[in-house]
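[audit] Reproducing an earlier prediction to check determinism. Same input, same settings, fresh worker. If the C-alpha cells differ from the archived copy the diff job will pick it up downstream; this log only records the rerun itself.
[audit] input (422 residues):
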Amino acid sequence: MPPAGLDNLKHIVVLMMENRSFDHMLGALTAQDNRIDGVTNNFSNPDMNGDPIVEQPLAEFQSQLDPDPDHHFPGVDLQIFGGVPPGPGRVANMQGFVKSYYQQQQNVAQSHKIMYYFPSKKLPVLTGLATQFAVFNGWFASIPGPTICNRAFAHYGTSFGQVGMNIFEWKGPYLSIYQRVLLAGRTAKIYYYDGPSSTMEIVNILNNQPKIFGTFDQFLKDCNKGELPDYSFVEPNYNDHDGDSEAEAASDQHPDHHVQHGEIFINKVYNAIFSNEELWKTTALLIVYDEHGGIYDHVKPPDCVADDDAFVAGPDKTETGASFAFDRLGVRVPAVLVSPWVPKNTVIPGPYQRNGRTFDHASIPATVMKFILKDFDPNTLSPANRQKFLAQSKREQAAGTFLDLLSDNRQPDGDLPSFEVQ
C-alpha cells in the first residue's frame, strides 16, 4: 500500500525560481541542523592575488551581484574546474568562482562577493519551508549552463543538445511532459506571470498554448476554487515593470533583482495552496531553482547517465574547445518539497553522504510520469501516440523521483508556518 500522503496526492506543483546556489540561499541552515550540507567555513576560493576567500554571511537583497555573475557554459566550467582545461583526468575542485566573477569587472573586491551567503533570518520563507518540510542536499542543475537549457530538462527531460540560451525548436522523439499528460487524458498547465517568460521561449510548448498556458492570477483563482490541474508549473515575474508596487517588481530572484520580492512570491504560492484545505492535503509543492547563477557552492557536481548520443554538444556550442556529452550535472541549487504529508525537518542526503540521493530537473518529468500517469494504459492510444508517450530520454529514465518522501502521517495545520515578509 502506498503511504497515505501519496494515496491522497492529486496535484503536483513546481515553482522554479532563478539563478541562486544552495550555499548562497540555504547554506546557513547547517548552523542549526548539521544534517544540512551547507556552509561550515571550511571552504574557500582563491582570488586573483592567490588569497583564500571564505564564505561569509554578507549577502544583500539587491545591488551586490551587479554585474550579473557568469553562468554560461564556459564560465561555469571555470567555476567547477578552477581553470584546468578540458581533458582526460580532469577533476572538479569548485575553485574558480572568484576568478570567474573577477572576469566580469576586473575588480578584486567585487569578485569576493560571489562567496557571500544569506543568514537564515533574512530568508524566512525559503528557510522556514526548508526546515518545516523537506530540503534536498543533492538537487543539481541538469547541465553546467544557463537558464533555457536547464529549464528544458524540467519540461522535456533533455535539452536536445543545447547548452546555451538559444531559442530552439526540436522535432525529435520526445514530447514535453505537458503533452504526455494531455495524451493521458489528464490536465497540466504552465502559469506564467506575463509575456516575457523563459518557458514561453521554448517553441515546442507553444504548440499547445491554449490548453497549457495560464496567468499567475489564474493560478491564484484556481487554487481558491480548488481547480488546479494534475500538474502545474509556476513561473515568477522576470522583469521589473513601471510602477512602485511590489506587484510590479521582478520576483524571480535572478541577480540583480530584489531577493525579498522572490520571498514574497514564494509565500504567495504557498499560501494559495495552504488556504484551501482540500487542496492543501492533496498537493505536493516543489520549490527549486533553475541554475546557480554563477554563485559559489561547495559541492562538486556528480557524474550522471549520459544523454542520448544524438544530443552531444560539440566545441562550437560549449565554447570551451571540448564536446559535452551531458554526462555530468551542473552546480547544486536550492530545492524544497512542501506537503503536509512530508515529515517535519526532513533532510534528503546528497550523493556524497550516507544513503545519498541525486536529483536534477529531469527528476520533474520523471516524477510526473511515475506518479500522475502510473495508472494510465498507453495501449489505449494510437500506435503513433503510444510511441511518443512512452519515449523518454536516457537522462529522464535514470532521474531520481521524490514523492516517496510523502508519509502516512499528516502534519497538523496548526503547527505549520505563516510568514510576514517586510
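[audit] rerun output stored. Observation attached for the diff report: The two ends are 44 Å apart (CA to CA).
[audit] end
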